User: Fold this.
Amino acid sequence: GKLEKMLDCLFADSRGRTRMMEWFRPRIISSVSAVISQEMDAVKEVLRGTLDSITPEFLLTWDLNSTIQNAVVSKAPVLNSILHRAAQTDRAKDKNKLKD
Assistant:
């Protein structure tokens, strides 16, 4: 639509892109922070349910990585994506492209 075309024109110009990003950045941070907060509330609920069901048998098979990973992957996809990107080095990113 017209709005998309206008934004595309602004982003095509380096000064326009800089100004738009200055305007977007605090709003994006606020929006993403709200999403992550909601996701973490969902993760806490999943983990709380896990805590309620602790038995000696459960402790014998419990694994921190799989427990946390399963909760985060299923209930916090935005946070998971951000953490993966933050942890990925440029070298790993280039190497992963070769695999695709």
In short: The helical segments are 2-12, 14-52, 56-61, 64-75, 77-87, 90-99. The chain has a mean pLDDT of 87.
